[in-house]
Write a structure and sequence with these properties.
The complex is a heterodimer of chains A (267) and B (634).
Chain A: E1 3-5, E2 8-10, H1 18-24, E3 48-53, E4 56-61, E5 71-74, H2 78-91, H3 99-108, H4 127-135, E6 141-143, E7 150-152, H5 167-171, E8 177-182, E9 185-190, E10 193-202, E11 209-212, H6 216-222, H7 237-255, H8 260-266
Parallel strand pairs in A: 1-5
Antiparallel strand pairs in A: 1-2, 3-4, 3-5, 6-7, 8-9, 9-10, 10-11
Helix pairs in contact in A: 2-3, 7-8
Chain B: H1 21-34, E1 41-45, H2 48-52, H3 55-68, E2 78-82, E3 94-97, E4 101-103, H4 111-121, H5 146-149, H6 167-172, H7 177-185, H8 188-198, H9 210-218, E5 225-230, H10 239-246, H11 248-262, E6 266-272, H12 276-291, E7 296-299, E8 304-313, H13 322-329, E9 353-357, H14 358-370, H15 372-376, E10 386-393, E11 399-404, H16 409-416, E12 426-431, E13 437-440, H17 452-457, E14 466-471, H18 476-490, H19 496-513, H20 521-535, H21 539-543, H22 546-563, E15 579-581, H23 591-595, E16 601-602, E17 610-611, H24 621-625, E18 631-633
Parallel strand pairs in B: 1-2, 5-6, 5-9, 6-8, 10-14
Antiparallel strand pairs in B: 1-3, 3-4, 7-8, 10-11, 12-13, 12-14, 15-18, 16-17
Helix pairs in contact in B: 1-7, 3-4, 7-11, 7-14, 8-9, 8-11, 10-11, 10-12, 11-14, 18-19, 18-22, 19-20, 20-22
The chains are: A alpha+beta (267), B alpha/beta (634).
Bound molecules: flavin mononucleotide, iron/sulfur cluster and FE2/S2 (inorganic) cluster.
Residues 31-34, 42-47, 61, 63 of chain A line the site of FE2/S2 (inorganic) cluster.
């Protein structure tokens, strides 16, 4: 398979995406809706590049286009730059304070004020919904269609499916999702609206609230990990670590036939 | 007193499990013997169009009238309900056989007369006959009506002849003959070969060569699926619906043949939920075919299984797009999937899936029966066979029209469509559904031959077969706005260009139609349109701007009149025109004065009238009604 990237021949494995090959070769292609950990959704279209396979030249999104035969790729033509510029101009009204969009605007010469603002605090990358599905919460989804599409819970009501993992907040490129632990509850707040409210565990050891009744094993199982120990539901991680240290120390000293009580106190 | 004679009846032939292709022929012969083509029969169109205008009531009334009449010594006429005859603008339609008498706009109250005069005495009821716009005499026989006579009905052949709820009637007309032939005489590869020779191209919009698609699907390993796209989301289109409602077995047989060719045993019909009659017809048809052993397990005792399931879609336009359709079929949200792997490799449930349109499947049985060479002889070199169009808009005869590919627009609009009503000029023909284009007619294109290539060449497309005729009173900017607005509402919204780009285009177009257009608007429309066409994820976005492109290309001066002169030359965009009465042409007949709902017209009898602009609401009444063309758009 002969792959020519911006005029230079590069190595590529069959099935690799154009974006992967480009990144491996230090060629930057802008993306908004792509993270390597999730299947590409190819929604933002920012990563569009020009591809020639055989005699046909077409525009494809690099984040999900698998290379399967000889190809020539251009990632930064005038036409592409122009398209990206307009894309940013069109998207900007949705999320005027996105730093990422501002950076991109500078790079592509986009006029962020070309179209009237309709602030939704969201660039519609869909990452939160996809990570939520992947992790197993299935709380956030894309609802509605057309210009009305938005991130929401089922029926727009606080969801019971949330496991409180906070992955959505982590992944949101515009920081519009917050996880707040307060009064014994964890709340996930998406663009100012409560998406879920789940009780936090109270540590039987120290009495403090800690992590939600999050089913760690569920998350792990969803990610395909096997043999994960069930999480401790009653003792907070801190006390849990503390107790473990004590138990280990006890066992250690028992081995050397030391009196546990005195020694543990010393430790 | 002589007894009434019951008509020969296929109902008397029992339903049996047919266990070999030869038995099917015998069964068919028995049915043929039991059905006398010369027996008197009243055929009532019960397609969705005619039902809407009251054909169910007509059927009931006719039934009662037949029962009441004394048929001493005569054969009691049978009553048959059929699918859509295609001439919906004249419905409810009734045809009296064997005379082939055509009655239109029949009401329940006409039933007694039809039975007592026409059937009993052979008298024709003039009032119910059809008279073409320019003709002096009505046309008696349905086959002589230009609307039908000028069509080539091969896909629609049985529609209007058979009772879609009675498989025996379909068998009388040759259903499942091709399946029997393929199962006994042809290998799967031969079936594909025949379809390849026929050069059949997909009727769902893309025009992809069907044989080629089948070939690539047949090559794949694993469970293969045959899926029928019956989503038909184009506004105004009803080709697929009519096929499913009028001749379901043709589509089912086409699917079974595809299954055989591809080595697939599982088929799905994805039908839009807004087509309840189609779903009912199909469900019944599948059940009847399974009872007879023509679908399901061990078809005709040959060991070939093909199980069919109907699935109803949520009715979103975008669900007709292949990857969205497959998602929806899997029970997920019907959004297009970003995949560069074709569905013939990995589609429904990640398995090889062959998706074809309803009309595409409907073409298959006759290709198998008569051969690819025969099929190819119809139409043009690169667009073979016929195409069914849904003809609508400013044309006399609105309805379904089937013509050979390559028929000229002139023949369709004037020959079959009967021309433009109200002595108006033809302005454009829009083809290809919401993302098609407008072909300007007076300029040069009346004689183009309608085919895949030619339509694309002039900036439109075949699409699934919508055809809207537009007269001089159509504003092309408004047309573009209408279609883009439709697509804005139907966009799934997941990808940026389609979601954000189309709405901006609508905003600009709306501004223009309101008289707030400005310098640079045309260029901005082109810029955004090019972007959405190039950068969108699915076919909806990548073709959405076509209506804008074609109207700017051919009717740029109309855009400019809106933007710079603040005028709508067609007199559609209300802020951009007013009516005036041409004093020289006005005879003072007073018709406009009487018609005007706003009482804005004044004038003495036989003297030129005038419009008070401050009262006029631009409702068009005067313009439409003036016999002397003296109302001017300014
Ligand atoms: C937005 C969109 C809507 C579509 N709607 C339909 C439809 O309603 N019916 C249909 O048969 N094809 C529709 N198509 C085309 C299908 O994606 C597909 O090409 C077709 O069903 C393939 O069948 P064919 O090869 O027999 O034409 C649509 C395509 C797009 C992009
Ligand atoms: S082009 Fe439009 S309909 Fe198609 S995926 Fe993008 S937003 Fe959805
Ligand atoms: S990063 Fe490829 S489409 Fe968004």
């Amino acid at each position: 398979m002969k792959i020519v990237l911006n005029g230079k021949e590069v190595a590529a494995k069959e099935g690799q995406t154009i974006l992967e090959v480009a990144r491996a070769n230090g060629v930057n292609i802008p993306t908004l809706c792509y993270v390597p950990a999730l299947d590409a959704a190819a929604m933002c279209r920012l990563c569009t590049v020009e591809l020639t396979e055989g005699r046909r030249t077409k525009l494809v999104t690099s984040c999900n286009y698998p290379l399967r035969r000889d190809a020539e790729i251009q990632t930064d033509t005038d036409a592409l730059r122009n398209g990206r510029r307009l894309l940013i101009e069109l998207l900007a009204p949705r999320c005027p304070d996105s730093v990422k969009l501002q950076e991109l605007a500078a790079e592509y010469g986009a006029n962020l004020k070309r179209f009237p603002e309709s602030n939704q605090d969201c660039v519609m990358c869909g990452l939160c919904a996809r990570v939520c599905e992947r992790v197993g919460g299935r709380t956030l989804t894309l609802s509605g269609r057309g210009v009305e599409i938005h991130v929401d819970t089922a029926f727009g009501r606080p969801s019971e499916l949330c496991i409180g993992c906070g992955a959505c907040a982590q992944i949101c490129p515009v920081n519009k999702i917050q996880v707040v632990d307060e009064d014994g509850f964890r709340r996930v707040i998406v663009r100012g609206q409560e998406a879920s409210r789940i009780p936090l565990n109270k540590c039987t050891s120290c009495g403090k609230f800690f992590g939600p009744v999050i089913s760690l094993s569920q998350v792990m199982a969803n990610l395909g990990e096997e043999k994960v120990p069930p999480p401790n539901q009653s003792v907070c991680p801190e006390c849990s670590r503390h107790n473990l240290a004590i138990r280990m120390a006890q066992r250690h000293f028992e081995q050397y036939e030391l009196a546990p009580h005195e020694t543990v106190e010393e430790v | 007193m002589a007894q009434a004679i019951s008509p020969a009846n296929i109902d008397n032939i029992p339903t049996i499990k047919i266990s070999s292709p030869r038995d099917l022929e015998e069964y068919r012969q028995a049915l043929l013997a039991a059905s006398d083509p010369n027996a008197p029969r009243i055929v009532v169109c019960c397609g969705t169009g005619c039902q809407a205008t009251g054909s169910v009531e007509v059927v009931e009334a006719l039934k009662a009238a037949v029962e009441e009449a004394g048929w001493e010594g005569k054969v009691i006429p049978s009553l048959k309900k059929t699918g859509c005859h295609g001439f919906c603008s004249r419905g409810p339609l009734v045809i009296i056989e064997p005379m082939d008498l055509f009655y239109q706009r029949v009401k329940g109250s006409d039933a007694a007369e039809i039975v007592n005069l026409t059937l009993m005495k052979g008298e024709v009821i003039k009032r119910l006959q059809y008279k073409p716009a320019d003709a002096k005499e009505p046309v008696a026989k349905s086959h002589d009506i230009p609307y039908y006579a000028k069509q080539t009905r091969i896909v629609l052949e049985n529609i209007g002849k058979i009772d879609p709820f009675e498989i025996k009637d379909a068998l009388v007309h040759g259903a499942y003959k091709s399946l029997a032939k393929a199962l006994t005489e042809m290998s799967p590869a031969q079936v594909i070969e025949e379809v390849s020779i026929s050069k059949l191209r997909g009727r769902g919009g893309g025009g992809f060569p069907t044989g080629l698609k089948w070939e690539s699907c047949a090559k794949q390993a694993g469970t293969r699926y045959v899926i029928c796209n019956a989503d038909e989301g184009d506004p105004g289109a009803f080709m697929d619906r009519s096929l499913l409602e009028g001749d379901p077995h043709r589509v089912l047989e086409g699917m079974a043949l595809t299954g055989y060719a591809l080595g697939s045993h599982r088929g799905y019909v994805y039908c839009r939920a807004e087509y309840p009659l189609a779903v009912r017809t199909l469900t019944n048809a599948i059940r009847q075919a399974e009872e007879l052993g023509l679908l399901g397990e061990n078809i005709l005792g040959t060991g070939f299984d093909f199980k069919l399931t109907i699935s109803t879609g949520a009715g979103a336009f975008v669900c007709g797009e292949s990857s969205a359709l497959m998602s929806s079929l899997e029970g997920k949200v019907g959004r297009p999937r970003p995949k560069y792997i074709r569905s013939v490799e990995k589609g429904f449930r990640d398995s090889p899936s062959n998706l074809n349109n309803v009309e595409t499947f409907a073409n298959v049985p006759m290709i198998v029966e008569k051969g690819g060479e025969w099929y190819k002889s119809i139409g043009t070199e690169r667009s073979t066979g016929t195409k069914v169009f849904a003809l609508t808009g400013n044309v006399y005869n609105i309805g379904l029209v089937e013509v050979p590919m390559g028929t000229s627009l002139r023949e369709i609009v004037y020959g079959i469509g009967g021309g433009i009503p109200n002595k108006k000029e033809l302005k454009a023909v829009q083809t290809g559904g919401p993302s098609g284009g407008c072909i300007p007619i007076p300029k040069k294109f009346l004689d183009i031959n309608v085919g895949f290539g030619k339509l694309a060449e002039v900036g439109s497309m075949m699409g699934s077969g919508g055809m809207i005729v537009m007269d001089e009173d159509t504003c092309m900017v408004e047309v573009a706005r209408y279609f883009i607005n439709f697509l804005v509402e139907e966009s799934c919204g997941q990808c940026t260009p389609c979601r954000e780009g189309l709405i901006r285009m609508v905003e600009i177009l709306t501004r223009i139609t309101k008289g707030q257009g400005r310098e640079g608007d045309i260029e901005a429309l082109q810029e955004i349109g090019e972007f959405t066409n190039n950068f969108s994820l699915c076919g909806l976005g990548t073709s959405a701007a076509n209506p804008v492109f074609s109207t700017i290309k051919y009717f740029r001066e109309e855009y400019e009149a809106h933007i710079y002169d603040k005028k709508c030359p067609a007199g559609v965009c209300k802020p951009l025109f007013h009516y005036e009465i041409d004093a020289e042409a006005c005879t003072g007949c007073g018709l406009c004065r009487m018609k005007c709902p706003a009482k804005a017209i004044a004038g003495e009898k036989k003297k030129p009238h005038a419009i008070d602009q401050s009262l006029c609401i631009k409702c068009m009444e005067c313009y439409r009604n003036c016999k002397f063309k003296s109302i001017r758009i300014l």
